[in-house]
Amino acid sequence: MFRCIQLASNGQQNAQPNPMVGAVIVAPDGRIIGEGYHIRHGEGHAEVNACASVRPEDEHLLADSTIYVSLEPCSHYGKTPPCADLLVSKHFKRCVVGCQDPFAKVQGRGIQKLRDAGIEVTVGVLEAECMALNKRFMTYHALHRPFVTLKWAQSADGYIDGHISTPFTQMICHKRRAEHQAILVGRTTYDTDSPGLNTREWYGPDPRRYVVSNDPDFHPDPSAGFERLVGTIPTMLQKLHEDGIQTLLVEGGAKLHQSFIDSGLWDECYVEIGDAAIHGSVQAPVMKNARLAERRTYMGRVIEKYVNTLYPFALNAIA
Ligand code: AOF
Ligand code: ZN
């Protein structure tokens, strides 16, 4: 199963919005005779690629072989036919599943299909790790909200109103933007910083841009691609879920970040710490239910990563 996770991780860039999935086929003598992973959304699933990798001289071993998969084999016709049907047609003896697929069209039906066909199925091997691998996909489908990443920069004396980032950490920030489907700022940040919120310092797509405001007369510039969001944090997240947003990056300001922290509805948080005191006027948000997961230095500048201890997926995360 570790090998499945390792293989799956190769899909980091191109599998989304699908999950990263890896599969390994083990013959009765313990030899690995096939491996595969989900390379790109819309294309073959991990099981299909693993079966295709088996050499012709090993094909006859499949009926006595075990297939390990980091995610439950699918049972639905999506862009590809059900993987469960493929495993049944190959007459696998046994299937070891890392974790169940929370996607509404699957949710245990793949496992059931295999069992109904007489395949021995074991579920939940390295379950936490397999779920953490797909923390974004899991959050979206199991918790019905986007995976929420908070991000801010604060001075050495804890203020966020000032120019704190360096060109290098700005590049890191733009890399994060490229990795998120949507970005959200508060009204004050929109008005005072008039941020572009696009991906300029890194190669990658621009996220969809949202501004929070309950003022009905506020119309963010649609030509710059901004949309307005209204309501409480749970209502906003519900709307984003409906819009198909799996990953949300919140870039401020302090009030909006604090609302997310107070609601408990966030997953990861990156805090850049500046070198100097600026004696500013806007204090950095106050963390709650947070665990410091990582402290890294980027060309002399520290970025701390916190995870929300209320949610399990990010806690065990590998990526
Ligand atoms: C698997 N193996 O490798 C993956 C699975 O649109 P489709 O047909 O690609 O289906 C996408 C859904 O299939 C996705 O939401 C998830 O539930 C499952 N992904 N399943 O058996 C795989 N990537
Ligand atoms: Zn599948």
Summarize the structure.
This protein is an alpha/beta fold.
Your description of this structure?
The chain has 319 residues and is an alpha/beta fold. 27% of the residues lie in helices and 24% in strands. It contains eleven helices and 13 strands. It has helices at 2-8, 46-52, 83-89, 109-116, 127-133, 135-142, 167-178, 187-193, 233-242, 254-263, 312-315; strands at 22-26, 32-37, 66-71, 94-99, 120-123, 147-154, 182-186, 208-212, 226-229, 247-250, 268-273, 290-298, 301-308. The strands form two sheets. An eight-stranded mixed sheet has the order 9-8-7-10-6-11-13-12. β3, α3 (83-89) and β4 form a beta-alpha-beta unit. α3 packs parallel to α4 (109-116). The protein is elongated and about 70 Å long. The mean pLDDT is 93. It binds ligand AOF and zinc ion (ZN). Residues 18-19, 21, 38, 45-47, 71, 73-74, 78-80, 83, 101, 103, 106 line the site of ligand AOF.
